[in-house]
Amino acid sequence: MSFGFFFLGSILTNNITVAIICISIGLAGISATAPVGWSISAELAPIGSVSMLSSMVNLSNNLFGGIIAASLTGYLFDVTGSFTLSFLVAGFVLLLGLVFYVFVLGDVKRIKLE
Q1: What is the pLDDT of residue 40?
Q2: Is the pLDDT of residue 114 over 80?
Q3: Containing H/E element for 53?
Q4: In whole angstroms, what is the distance from residue 12 CA to residue 100 CA?
Q5: pLDDT value, residue 66
Q6: Which of 10, 13, 45, 69 falls 20 to 30 Å from 91 in CA-CA distance?
Q7: Distance CA 29, CA 35 (A)
Q8: Cα–Cα distance, 64 to 29 (Å, whole number)
């Protein structure tokens, strides 16, 4: 997951090749964590409700990644004329996710319903 931070290197360069390499490594690092996220929700869901929790995770991913992030990026670009602030916000969100995975998640145990 920490390889995802490589994309921030793209805001430090004017070389398009270096920027593309930084973004590619960052996206590869973030993409490598996707199966882990899906398996965690499958492990946490009570028996018989894996599909419901997976649907909620999918909705959240599409809502935040597909709608909110795209809208916020467009707004920040419109205001600043640059993608730098959008990349910094994305870096902060990635850092927040990493903190949650490492310090908040804890043991992954199935939720038991009575």
Answers
A1: 86
A2: no
A3: helix 50-61
A4: 27
A5: 87
A6: 45
A7: 12
A8: 19
Could you tell me if 49 and 30 are in contact, meaning their C-beta atoms sit under 8 angstroms apart? no
Cβ atoms of 9 and 74 closer than 8 Å: no
Asked if 33 and 53 count as a contact pair (C-beta separation under 8 A), the reply is no
pLDDT digits (tens, 9 = 90+) for 32-71: 988 887 888 888 888 888 888 888 888 988 898 889 999 9
- Within a 10 A sphere around the Cβ of 87, how many other Cβ atoms? 20
- Per-residue pLDDT at 79: 97
Give dist(CA 5, CA 25) in Å, integer.
9
What's the rounded Cα separation, in Å, for the pair 73 and 107?
A: 34
Q: In this predicted structure, what is the pLDDT of residue 35?
A: 84
Gyration radius (Cα) of the chain, Å: 17
| pLDDT at residue number 72 | 95
Residues sharing a CB contact under 8 Å with residue 1, sequence separation 6 or more, in sequence order: 29, 30, 32, 33, 94, 97, 98, 101
To 10 degrees, what angle do helices 34-44 and 50-61 make? Answer: 140
The number of angstroms, rounded, from the C-alpha of 93 to the middle of its chain's C-alpha atoms is 7
